[in-house]
Amino acid sequence: MIMPYRPIVPPSPVPKHVARLVWKLERHYLQPVHAMFRLPLPHYRIVAEFQFGIAHLLLAAVAGVSTTLYAQSGSNGERFRQTLLGYYPFTLEPVGAIPAINAARTLWSVFRNSLAHDLGFDVEKQAKTPETKLLRVLTKAPSGARGLTERMIERLEDSYVRPAKKPTIAIRPDATVLFIDVLYWGVRCMTQNLLADTARIQRAEKFLATL
Known about the structure:
By secondary structure, this protein is mainly α. The protein has helices at residues 16-37, 51-70, 76-87, 100-117, 150-158, 180-195, 198-209, and strands at residues 132-135, 139-141, 144-146, 169-171, 176-179. It has one domain (16-201). It is 52% helix and 8% strand. Strands 1-5-4 form a 3-stranded mixed β-sheet.
C-alpha cells in the first residue's frame, strides 16, 4: 500500500506537548516538502522544481526544532549549529565530505540566513563562496523533467541507511552546493535522534507546557 507521507516514529513515546510540536513540525514543514518533491508535473503544466521552497522549509524546520526541542536560550545561530552537530547524521556522510562543524556553519551562514533574509544571495558575504546552488533528484518523462515518485520519497522517509552517496553539502571551486533530497532525509533523522534524548525532551516538555 502506498502512503502519501510516512510520519516520524519516535524511538519511544514522547510527552504530550512535545508530541503536539512534532505534529506541527510534520504538518506545516515536512508534509509540504513531501508534496513538493512530487513536482514538477509537466503533464499538468506544473514545471517549477521548488528547490528554494524545499530548502527554505527544511532549514526553517531545523531552526524551529533548535529553539523548541533543543534549547530555549542562547543565540539563534548557536542553537541551530549545535542541534545539527548533536543530532544530524553527519557520521554517515560519504568519504571526503566536509567536516561536520563546517557543514553546520555553512548550513547556517550560507543557506539558512541567505534564504530567509536575502532571497538566496549572500549579501553579507559570510560564505565567501562565488555562488550557492540547491540541487535535487528529478526523474525523466517524455513530457519533461518530473519530480520523485511516491515510492522514491517513501524510501527517503523509511530508510535508516543513507539514501545516496552524495554529501549534504559540497564545496566546489565555483559554488557551494546543498543537496536537498539528502537534507530531507537528514532532518528527519536529526529529529528522531533528538526525540531519543530523554533528558532534553523532558526539558522541552516543561518549556512547552508554559506556552
